[in-house]
# Entry
Amino acid sequence: MYTIHAALPAGKRGENDLRQGLAIIKLNGVRDSYRIFSVMPVRDATTGGGKHLEMPKDRPEATDPAVYSSAFQRFARERFPSSQQAWGNRAKDVAEILALDAPKRDIENKTPRAEIDLVKAAGLLKIMGPKEYGGGGESWETGYKCIREVAKGDASIGMLLGYHLLWSTTANVVGTEDQATAIQQVILENNWFIGGAVNPRDSDLKITSDGDNIVFNGFKNFNTGGVISDLTVLEGVFEGTEDHIFTLVKTDQPGMQFQHNWDSIGMRLTESGSVRIDNIKVPWADALGWDPDTKRPTKDILSVPFASMLLPTIQLVFSNFYLGLAQGALQAASKYTATQTRPWPFGGDNKDQATDEWYILERYGGFAAHLEAADALADRAGEKIARLYADVGLHGSTIVGAGATNGHTNGHTNGTYSSIKLNRSAVTARARGEVAAYVAHFKVVATDTGLQVTSGIFEMLGARATGRKYLFDRFWRDLRTHSLHDPVAYRRREVGRWQLLEEIPEVSWYT
# Structure
């Protein structure tokens, strides 16, 4: 039972007005209600299609949303996407806008406030959300395609979109149905962007109990998108146990202390720097999948194979923006070669234009063929992930009930959205492992092919293309930086064990 108290903006709310959102929201209810947010101060970022929480005053310089004002106006006029193709077209529009000044923004390395406002205005944060709350109602198949598309124009923003889609569905995987419902409503109605402080290579955040609350403390070296996020996913280990707790908290609070130290060679606009978590207090009722009375994890939610589905899901997020940025590299290189590369005059088989050079045609042909094959593999992997979620009763972030098909139209079948229950036991360890193995196949292909393409395009461009104004090296830098996230050699080993022994990958933070 939830009561929502909100200050609504003037005018009628509708799915076509992407700039609608709650100014203040407070969820209250009975003892077991999910009180994720009390009164939260927000800044009206109407130019960017959503509501932001004000960031700390000491944040570094950010990009100015005004640069995309014409795009904001355009998206506000256009119809809200209602099909996979329409969402793909919207993502393509965003990619093309981002590609126009991608080299300049990479060099400046500013906090991507304008870029996230652009993604918000386009509605891309809502792709997989329930239609009941203004979401797109699409599955992970569509989500992955859009991540791939945006990464063609700017890998950093494609990565941020992917992480947002993953974190925004966290409660659907490890929370109760009521928690998932409340979180989806809050995210969608405010058009909020989600960051996450969940780097498993660092020490776990420490969680202690304080009456009706839990308290998070610790430090994370990497916190992707945190500086520009409205909400942040926290995860840690509860004191005296080995049990993990996930929750979402408002980003704008004193205990969220960003170090503003992200300055890597690639993925420069992802704001993936360090953060200190200092005494952030959360109600026990907000611990995803935990019983607030017994203060214990709910076994039929957190002790089943489906509870670890966030891991292969995010691995496929990674591989999709790897592929997208490689496709973007080939697109940018092709345009340059067709218009600016000069033919080589000393080969004995001289051509009038570079596009007639046999070695240039051969290289482009090889890269294009491999990327096309990788694209097909990406779609198959996305279908497998979406099918596994459907077996449980999820279509993207929409709870549709076990056995529902991807053809649902209104986000639910019988009863109310919050009354439909998931069949988490439908996903066996074997089924989850087979999907993880297939995701590993694609991770290997996307990484290897992407590195070959992003480093190899220079052979068809010529020396002038190394000019800083073109910044063709950004594609390789982006892929090389993130592909070190977890060694692809271990994905090859997983694929090898699956091929030779039919052994599914062991569940880990990276599988």
